[in-house]
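User: Continuing from earlier, I have the next pair ready.

Assistant: Great, send them over.

User: Here they are, in order.

Assistant: Folding the first of the pair now:
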Amino acid sequence: MSSTQTVTSSSVEVNTRPAQLTAAQVLEEFPDVVPLGNESGSTTRPSSSSDQDSQQLFEGHDEEQIKLMDEVCIALDWADKPIGSASKKTCHIMPNIHKGLLHRAFSVFLFNDENKLLLQQRADEKITFPSMWTNTCCSHPLAIPTELGHDLPSSVEGVKRAAQRKLDQELGIVKDDIPLDKFKFLTRIHYVAPSSGAWGEHEIDYILFIRSNPKLAVNPNEVKDTCWVSPDELKEMFKDQSLLFTPWFKLICESYLFHWWNSIDDAEKFQDDEIHRML
């Protein structure tokens, strides 16, 4: 794809390429990024949502979602090498994104035995991309030993553990229904997308497939609605102008998903070590 490509997802438009920074430049530009080796081991950094700027950013937002903005994400260079940890808030502010701050993410696509894909509609309470339809689960591994990873194999294992954690937290899917060895890693995409106000995304996103028939216990603070769809049903949803979709989901669908969908049980053949730049 061209680096100047514009990607439209309902009201979301992407046309700004962030700066490409070295690890040293990231640590110099963003004092909130804690270098690797200096982490406290905590999954959160509470100070990130307590200053005056944060109070303005979070005005009117849900308290539970504000707390989640203290989670520590993995700050990266463009080669997907971890540099350090930074709060979710720090990683998702558009001024930081424009300056080049990049973090790691994952997107899970969960299919049932009928080859239908589980979609979720993000809760209205979400700070970024509220009320939008998306794939089964989209989130971030934390900058903790079990989810961090320093090369591709260990990073894949880390995002699988993070996927288990978030599928439980968002959809109530228990680990027995989504064992680590059943997740299939396909590839990574690098994209940027503004959300509303000061918020947005700039991620290297790990794509995970899994087949399961889980019981759901939806967390309404995270998920507004769910549905199982066939490829044709998803295409019909895209035609409905009243529905909004997350930009990463639209990117993956337009570039890859419908091709992959025909070979769910043989998805390993699509696996690669590339980082596909969709900027």
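And the other member of the pair:
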Amino acid sequence: MGLSPEQTDKPSTFLPLFHSLLIMSLTSGMVSAILIVDIIFDLPIAAAQLSGIGPFTSQPSSSAVYHHAFIYYTAILNSPAMTFKTLGAMTSVLYGSWLAWDAGAAVNELNPQRYGKKFPLALRFQIIFITYCVMTAIYLFFIIPRYLPFMQNIQKYVFFNDVPLAFSEDIFDNWWYIALLRFILFSGNIAAIVQCIQVMRKLVRAIEPDVRI
């Protein structure tokens, strides 16, 4: 995106940045909320699978936690509304972070002495963008493949399997690492939100140096 030299240090210069940060913050919050619900069902399975291993306390095995997770994932992964919400959130985050990277680089080029020191804006946005790229890759290549057995339309139209999925604990084999990846994604989302807030504070101070937030 192009910014003319006359726009340097004017509030309008920073509007694309604020828009991008707002998109990222809102969608990151939505993704984090979805992850929290998933973690609630993942943790009991992870605890059962890691029971008695290393520092983990031994616990009695129960098929109830597996059955509850089976019902949840079967329902949620076959819900069009939930599927489009997740894909929309991921797309919005990546698009917003890309806009922010582009705008941040433009601001740094206009006034590198002011915005290029002490953790420059462009670098902050690049870190956010790379963080979301890594989290999206983790979701697509490690979590989505474990979801496929639950997705009836995928089984029917891609794998030509019309037999309904029957409950079995084997479906959740090594599910503990899915719970671990979920924690990584959640932590990445929270870290990105914190970074967005810090960048907003820096932009506000750039526009109004006397403001302290």
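Worth noting for the second one:
The chain has seven helices and no strands. Residues 205 and 211 are 6 Å apart (CA to CA).
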